Amino acid sequence: MTRCRWITLDELESRRAEWHELAADSEFPSAFADPGWLLPWWRTYGERYEPWCLALEESDGSLRGLALLACGRERLARTLTFAGGEWNGLEVLLCAGGLEPEFSAMLLEQLAARRRDWDVWRVRRLPTQSCLAQLLLEGSGPLKAAAHDVRLQPFLALPQDGTEFESRFGSKQRNTQRRKWRRLLELGAVPRIVSDPSEIEPAVRRLLELRRARAMAMNQRYAHMDMRFERFLVDAVRDMGPEGTRLWTLEADDQTLVMRLDLVQGAREHSYLLGLSNDHTALSPGSSLERHAILEAIAEGRTELDLGPGRDKYKYRLGAIDRELTRLVVLSPSIRGRILGTTAAIDLRLRNTAAADALRRRQGMVPERGNSDAVRIPAHQRIDK
Predict the structure, then answer these.
(1) For 114-139, what is each residue's pLDDT tens digit?
(2) Are residues 15 and 123 in the same domain?
(3) Has residue 308 been placed in a domain?
(4) Residue closest to 193 by CA, chosen among 294, 293, 307
(5) Does 309 score more than 60 pLDDT?
(6) What is each CA distance from 114 to 80, 83, 149, in whole angstroms?
(7) N or C: fewer beta carbons within 10 Å in the chain?
(8) Are 165 and 158 in contact (CB under 8 A)?
(9) Which domain holds residue 135?
(10) Which CATH number belongs to the domain containing residue 180 in this structure?
(11) Per the domain annotation, does 175 fall within a domain?
(12) CA distance linking residue 140 with residue 197, whole number of Å
């Protein structure tokens, strides 16, 4: 028999090992729901939020599910989000096998019971095929989506060996990739994973320096990658440790050519952040390190590489297919929620227009809307059913 209850962050932190095990073994494992990611987020950004964490437990008290939410104030409204907010690449409930339908329904019932304590629930990147998304979209439970759209996020389904992965590309492309990689190695480039604790802080700082410089050059947003975000990222890389992060660097002649940060949870790896210098660009060091990292992920037994937000063309050249994610606005059933949440619902509808897409393009943001041409996930390949 299972029961659900609201659980404090202190208690969750004291049960960190059990939380991590649930995150790794969940129906949809994600590094963005791991304690190594979310506890640093709470330490860095948590002063603006109240933890709303719902636990599903067996009769013996063992964790079987977690809904990791946060409640903050957004203008006049008290707004619920998944903990981690805009720094998450995916938003999921943690559920042991077979319990997602039950736990999703319980969460909506609990939130409806606390309707006077919140006004709007903003969901950013919830897999469309998840039970929670289906309940909110169908409106068959006590809460329903007041507005929603579809976002497409590419990922690679990784084969069992690197040779099979490289066979996806034509012989000319394979030979070009290998020639550039050999040339980089001849120049003294050495790919490695930063794992020494004393190196983590300067390595993350360098990664963000490269990423900000690249963003400025390409007229992309970068103000959010500030000192606070740097502290959060350093803390998260340390907390998640070498099992949960891959902080890659490719260096030559004491110069950093490219860096990338990937997050790992079970068989899934998330490509999170890339920093690229202007050195040896003719040899494509970014693409070369990415290929090397993918082959290493395959060798370590990963079956999926999530490529993060943005439907960039290079991702599809790697063989990416799209996962459907939904962005939702849910209103509290209270009178206050219905009044204050109307503006949020209208705002989401306006964001899902061609005009809004054009504005994002001018700001250097790659559109993610679901009505663009897309390579969607075949039903038999969906792992978030």
Answers:
(1) 999 999 999 999 999 999 999 999 99
(2) yes
(3) no
(4) 293
(5) yes
(6) 12, 18, 26
(7) N
(8) yes
(9) 2-152+323-381
(10) 3.40.630.30
(11) yes
(12) 49
| Same-domain status, 282 and 208 | yes
Name the pLDDT band for 355 (thresholds 50, 70, 90): very low
Interhelix angle 285-299/171-186, rounded to 10 degrees, is: 100
Do 195 and 333 sit in the same domain of this protein?
A: no
CB atoms within 10 A of CB 35: 23
**Residue 94, in any domain of the structure:** yes
Q: Could you say which of 242, 272, 302 is where a domain stops?
A: 302
> Residue 343 above 90 pLDDT?
no
35-45 vs 227-244: helix crossing angle, rounded to 10: 160
Question: What 3 state SS string does the chain have?
Answer: CEEEEEECHHHHHHCHHHHHHHHHHCCCCCHHHCHHHHHHHHHHHHHHEEEEEEEEEECCCCEEEEEEEEEEEECCEEEEEECCHHHCCCCCCEECCCCHHHHHHHHHHHHHHCHHHCCEEEEEEEECCCHHHHHHHHCCCCCCEEEEEEEEEEEEECCCCHHHHHCCCCHHHHHHHHHHHHHHHHCCCEEEECCCHHHHHHHHHHHHHHHHHHHHHCCCCCCCCCHHHHHHHHHHHHHHHHHHEEEEEEEECCEEEEEEEEEEECCEEEEEEEEECCCCHHHCHHHHHHHHHHHHHHHCCCCEEECCCCCCHHHHHCCCEEEEEEEEEEECCCHHHHHHHHHHHHHHHHHCCHHHHHHHHHCCCCCCECCCCCCECCHHHCCCC
pLDDT attached to residue 93 = 96
Q: Which of 10-19, 23-32, 374-383 has the lowest mean pLDDT?
A: 374-383
Domains identified in the chain, total number: 2
Predicted confidence (pLDDT) per residue in 198-257, tens digit: 999 999 999 999 999 988 888 888 888 999 999 999 999 999 999 999 999 999 988 999
Of 181, 187, 184, 154, which is closest to residue 166 (Cα–Cα)? Answer: 181
Is 57 found in the same domain as 177? Answer: no
Q: Do 142 and 48 share a structural domain? A: yes
Higher per-residue pLDDT: 356 or 165: 165
pTM of the model: 0.88
